[in-house]
Amino acid sequence: MKLLGISGTIIGSKTLTVVKKVLEQAESIHPEITAELLDMKEYDVQFCDGRDPSAYEGDTKKVIDLISSADVYIIGTPIFQGSYTGVLKNLIDLVDPKVFRNKIMGFVATGGSDLHYLVIENQLKPIGSYLHAYMAPSYVYAHKNHFFQDELVDEEVLERVKNLAKELVFMQTALKGSAETVGEIS
């Protein structure tokens, strides 16, 4: 089972910190998990221009291939101007929507306002639904006050990280088991 953590930003470090925490928790819960991290700061990705995803080259192709090979996703974004990042939007646009069909998605977000958690409910989950993915019921939102420097320290948020990791593992294990029993869903 391959869990891909995506830090959908090219600036800051708090989102990356939370995504890493979820990956670490998931690996500690289930030994069969192979966790990988896609930190968008490390790639020079082209803007989506409507061509077939297989036509991209370089870092863009690497990122598309990495996403396509995953079974489960933890998608993270900071909240800017009341929305998720353009980097994440571009990334989603680059990947064929069929890649996400019947796969598990969990979300994390970071921001400076207590109300920014609504971006997960009102923007990210609807995108996952459009892509025909299965969304973890919970998510993690971390406010700037939940960190000491770049370390996530708030116990309640750390508990939400743990719960989200458990949900992702449970959902993927259940989905895999049901697919083996009744056949793949297309």
UniProtKB/TrEMBL annotation:
Any Pfam family: FMN_red
Keywords: Flavoprotein, FMN, Oxidoreductase
GO molecular function, one term: oxidoreductase activity
Positions of the NADPH-dependent FMN reductase-like domain: 1-144
Protein's name according to its UniProt entry: NADPH-dependent oxidoreductase
